[in-house]
Amino acid sequence: MREGAAERHDRLLSLVRERGTVRVSDLAERLGVAAVTARRDVEALASRGLLDRAHGAVSWPRGQGPAGVAPGGGSPVLGMLAPAAAYYFAEVIRGAHEAAAGLGARLILRVSDYRADDDASHAAGLLAAGARGLLVAPSWSAPDHPARYEEWVAGLPVPTVLVERLGVPGGPLDEMDRVRSDHAHGVLLAVRHLVGLGHDTPLLVARADSPTALAVRAGYARALDVMGLRAPLPVLDSSSAERHPALFERTARGLADAVRTGRATAALMHNDEDATWMVRRLAELDVRVPGDLALVTYDDEVAALADTPLTAVAPPKRAVGRRAAELLLERLTTPNAEAAPRIHLDLLPTLRVRASCGPPTPR
Question: Model-level pTM?
Answer without folding.
Answer: 0.80
